[in-house]
Amino acid sequence: MLAATALALTSCSSGDSGVASAREPADTAPASSVAAAAPTPTTTTVPEPVCTVTAEPGDSLTAIAERNGLTLEQLKAENLLDPTDVFHPGQEFDVCLGDRFDPADATFTEPISAMVIRQQNELNELLSTTSMIPLDVDGDSGRLTRQAACAARMGLGLPVHNRHLVPGSEEEATIFAATELSIPEGAPTDADRWILIDQTCQVIFIGEGNDRVVDVFPTSTGSEGHETFTVRARAFRFDPAVDNEGWHDSASYPVEVDNPLNGNMYRPIYFNDGQAIHGAEFVPPYPRSKGCARTFPKHQDMIIEWLGLQDLTEATWSISEIDVTVVVQGRYTDLEPLPDDDTA
């Protein structure tokens, strides 16, 4: 068990606010929308701290470096500049060493709408046998589209990140050519049954040994200050909460591993003290929980049925009965500030 001070930070909250697109998906896939006019590509930058500066008329690389407390070599290395590169007024440069923004990295640039529409169609086809929510084919390379692309990278052995899918890239060609997903890196394939929670992509893979991926689900992990801990652990408790239609309320029914801040959690499966995989009505494609990993209730039911726990009427603390190994990996970063509702 973790110390009591750590446990106090381990709390989950279902919440009921947020955008409609992150709510319980309908049983039918949404109809594709008509392609909109292609907007001019825009570059997304990190708002704070100010890590990008714009070259002005008459600027030199040396002047840009000195204004921002860097050496010329540091500026060149951070922006992957070649001695033969020519730069122009208006060009952006990254002046924060070692950060995640790089103007030379095309994954930070939103593709034009027509390209995204094709990507969305291909991602929907690739993920059609999983429980990932079908994308609206709207040409918007937003969080849901990037979440789907990130899940595809995981299942195809590509470098994992949650930025844009670059049109015409080898990565895009690999995704377009794929017909199924493989077991992702990090999955505990030495276990008979496993659950892999990836915080970079905000997805959950479940599988069986080294044999197969059973399914993939969207998730929402712990928000800043309430992070879901990186861990490998055996799930040790499951609460069907049948007396409350599956909704375990730790504020009203606390036990040793609960925290009153947990609130309502649908049929939680605990794996690390008070941290659990549980159903919730609001599962956005970014961290929103208070330490747990959320799924939609229908997806939680699917996980429980896969584990053979659907007929239990009382909570079990039997590790052998639950019989699943859980791994939490990755770290979430975003191309844009999180919505205000993330603070609730």
Automatic annotation (TrEMBL):
Keywords: Cell shape, Cell wall biogenesis/degradation, Peptidoglycan synthesis, Transferase
CDD domains: LysM, YkuD_like
SMART domains to which the protein is assigned, alphabetical: LysM
Region (Disordered): 12-51
Biased composition (Low complexity): 27-51
Gene Ontology MF term list: transferase activity
InterPro entries named among the record's database cross-references: LD_TPept_cat_dom, LysM, LysM_dom_sf, Transpep_catalytic_dom
GO biological process, one term: regulation of cell shape
Coiled-coil parts of chain: none
Keyword Transcription in record: no
Protein's pathway: Cell wall biogenesis; peptidoglycan biosynthesis
Domain LysM: 51-95
Protein name: Unannotated protein
